[in-house]
Amino acid sequence: IGILAYTLAMHAEGVYNLVKDASAFGSGAVFVVFMFGMYTKFGGARSAASALVVGSVLWFVAYYIFDFEFSFIGATLCSLVVYVVLAFREPVVKVVPALEVSQPD
Predict the structure, then answer these.
(1) Can you state the angle between helices 45-60 and 27-39, rounded to 10 degrees?
(2) Which of 8, 40, 58, 92 is the most interior residue, by most CB within 10 Å?
(3) Nearest Cα to 75, choosing from 95, 60, 85?
(4) How many Å apart are CA 68 and CA 64, to the nearest integer?
(5) CA–CA distances in Å: residue 51 to residues 20, 38, 47, 94
(6) What is the per-residue pLDDT for 1?
(7) What letters, b where the CB count within 10 A reaches 16 and e where it falls short, cover 39-62?
(8) d(CA 87, CA 84)
(9) Closest to 21 measured CA to CA, from 36, 35, 7
């Protein structure tokens, strides 16, 4: 990872572009996982981790290898699809509330 970061830094067009690329790298996938995690009980750890990996890798490949102009939107949408598909495949875990135990006097 260090060699990859060094290579990207040496071939960058400036600090502004490095900061812009760093902010776009995984933020689309993080947005998808954050929204589902905060506002629903849909999905779990496997769907969240898969969405993060797929979104980050897809953005990197689309942006640096294919020079795709809409790589951020594409990676965000693919993260959404991966999250939803894997969330339907995950088993539903029921949370049972803890019983209140009273202490004898």
Answers:
(1) 160
(2) 58
(3) 60
(4) 8
(5) 21, 15, 6, 23
(6) 61
(7) eeeebbeebbebbbebbbebbbeb
(8) 5
(9) 7
Cβ neighbours for 43, distance < 8 A, ≥ 6 positions apart: 36, 37, 83, 84, 86, 87, 90
* Cα–Cα distance, 46 to 29 (Å, whole number): 14
Mean pLDDT by 10 residues, the chain (105 residues): 76 80 81 89 89 90 86 91 91 71 70
Residue type at 24 in one-letter notation: A
**N-to-C CA span, the chain:** 61
Residue count of the chain:
105
Encode pLDDT of 69-90 as tens digits: 888 899 999 999 999 999 998 8
Asked if 43 and 82 touch (Cβ cutoff 8 Å), the reply is no
Which residue carries 């502004």 as its tokens?
16
